[in-house]
Amino acid sequence: MEDVLLAAVRAIMAADTVTNPKTELKTHWKGTAIPGPRAPGESVTEFSSVPVDQSFDSLSGHYKIFQYKEGHRFSTDDLLTAWYGTLCAPAPLRVLDLGSGIGSVGMVAAWRLQGAKFVTVEAQEISVELAKKSARYNGLENRYEIRTGDFRDPKVLPESEKFDLILGSPPYFPLDSGLHAEHEQKVACRFEVRGSIHDYCLTAAKHLALGGVFACVFPISPPHQEQRMRDAAHAAELSIFRRRDVILKEDEPPLLGLFSMVQKSDRPESMYRQLWHEPPLTIRRADGSVHPEYSVIKMSIGFGP
Fold first, then answer.
1. Domain check: are 46 and 95 in the same one?
2. Pairing of β 117-122 and β 208-219
3. Does residue 43 sit in the same domain as residue 99?
4. CA–CA separation, 131 vs 95, rounded Å?
5. Residue 165: helix, strand or coil by DSSP?
6. pLDDT at position 43, please?
7. Residue 183 in this model has a pLDDT that exceeds 50
């Protein structure tokens, strides 16, 4: 049965893909040319089959990612975090991804920053194992260290380590604020099992190199969520210098915000309260089609529009 399912999946993928007749490797995805370096795993037997409870999906360029079908899966939030962070940080050489999950944020950033070295920290072993497999496929082992544990633990992330860019897609909700998902992997991705936005900001502040940038995504609706973000940055002595709200569908209010911040000591005091609030980014038009700007953003991270 598994072989039949895999054959069906491959047939669907083949129908949407143009192949290079000389290498038999895919050159297009949904009609769009795939940019960037080849992933070494494209021709490795280890990755020729996918367990029935997992899917193997395009992420950025030729990079792909393993995900549980019923577990935590990468989202628009993750793609935007990686894009915004790599857009706002000046020439980062060392990058940290906090609460890295299955690796979607870090690996998109690694695709964008081919010369940078990465450290990612994730507490759920089930997610770490998937991230390691994806990293092998994408050929990232030499510059992509995946650590298992709580990023607040100095044994996992020593205070002496500094980074030019820190990324975070933190859970949005307190643990007691709603119903938990059935799959164990989803709970810690949505609810604050091991820390909140305050912990993300405090940890980022400790590990930012001189002039480094911390970029994250967080809800701005309802209003108390936005205030939590502001309070967290203030408590960590971080200065938000750039922000962009995200409208999921045209004519609806923005629900998410992308934030970039630096240590207050890296800016003159006169600029602490100066913030560039960029025009909102719209993901989908009112008719449900992808907004042209978001299509361009997806192409800039090597993901077809």
1. no
2. unpaired
3. no
4. 16
5. strand
6. 87
7. yes
Among 139, 129, 151, CA closest to 196: 151
Burial class (CB in 10 A: 0-12, 13-18, 19+), 248: middle
Q: How many percent of the chain have pLDDT more than 90? A: 75
Our count of domains for the chain comes to 2
CA distance 305 to 292: 9
Residue 29 has pLDDT above 90, yes or no: no
Helix (H, G, I), strand (E, B) or coil at 206: helix
- Write down the pLDDT at residue 197: 96
Domain end (from 12, 47, 68): 68
Report yes or no: 89 and 266 within 8 Å, Cβ to Cβ.
Answer: no
Domain annotation covers residue 305: no
Q: Which of 33-37, 94-98, 176-180 has the highest mean pLDDT?
A: 94-98
- For residue 186, pLDDT over 60 is answered with no
Judgement on whether residues 9 and 101 belong to the same structural domain of the protein: no
In residues, how long is the chain? 305
Q: Are residues 115 and 187 in the same domain?
A: yes
The two most distant CA atoms of the chain are separated, in Å, by: 66
Look at the block and give the residue holding tokens 């960029």: 278
Tokens of 118: 């990465």
Q: Which amino acid is at 33?
A: A
Contact criterion met (CB below 8 Å) for 239 and 230: no
DSSP 61-125: TTEEEEEESSS----HHHHHHHHHHHHHSSS-SEEEEET-TTSHHHHHHHHH-TT-EEEEEES-H
Which structural domain range is residue 27 located in?
Answer: 2-68
